[in-house]
Amino acid sequence: MVSIRCKMMVKEVLRKLELHFIVVDLGEVEIMETISIAQREELKTALLDIGLELMDDKRAILIEKIKNAIVEMVHHSDTELRVNFSHYLSEKLDYDYTYMANLFSEVQGTTIEHFIIAHKIEKIKELIIYGELNITEIAWKMNYSSVAHLSNQFKKATGLSPSHFKNLKDKRRSPIEEIGNTNQPN
What is the mean pLDDT of residues 103-129? Predict the structure, then answer.
């Protein structure tokens, strides 16, 4: 789950199945009661019907937690990105960063760093489209050392300079769920 809408849909599924939840968070659900195998299958089917899946594999769950932590930090945090992502992920998920980075690369076919960059670029597109901040302010908000660094990374990822992107009539953005997937264009 990577959006508030997904969380709402999961809560609705749980209510329909009369399962009482303690927490429904991005990529994680905690249910009060112990559920039977039949209830688990019913939940799995109901989630698939809305385009989500129930995950049991601990490695896959960790990958989802990494992705969700990045999405939460880049897209849903109102503060400037003034953090070291490796430290942030290690603290938040309570795993060694090297382990997470190796697992992520092995399973996803891309590095955590590239996944973060893809999300930062998408957030930069959003900020450019909204037009409330200039490029210098965006660079500061997104924790770039300079406008030149932001511009170089943006051009490398999109093929366009930020100013050229701003002047496009058809500004293309990607759904959060598709950002950083190796089989999806950025």
Answer: 94
Contact 90, 155 (CB under 8 A): no
How many other C-beta atoms are found inside a 10 Å radius of the C-beta of residue 178? 14
Please enumerate in sequence order all residues whose Cβ is within 8 A of that of 66, keeping only pairs 6 or more positions apart, or say none: 89, 93, 100, 104, 112
Burial of 166 (0-12, 13-18, 19+ CB in 10 A): middle
Handedness of CA 92, 5, 101, 179 (dihedral sign): negative
Query: Strand runs (DSSP E) across 28-182, as ranges?
Result: 28-31
Domain that holds residue 46: 1-54
153: domain CATH number? 1.10.10.60
Q: What angle (nearest 5°) sits at the alpha carbon of residue 44, between those of residues 21 and 75?
A: 65
- The pTM of the full predicted model, rounded to 2 decimals, is 0.68
- Contact status, residue 144 vs residue 153, Cβ threshold 8 Å: yes
* DSSP for residue 184: S
Between the alpha carbon of residue 20 and those of residues 6, 11, 146, 157, 161, the distances in Å are 17, 9, 48, 43, 49
In a domain, 95, yes or no: no
What pLDDT digit, counting tens, does each position of 126-154 carry?
999 988 999 999 999 998 999 999 999 99
Query: Can you tell me the distance from the alpha carbon of 18 to that of 38, in angstroms, rounded to the nearest whole number?
Result: 13
What's the pLDDT at 124? 95
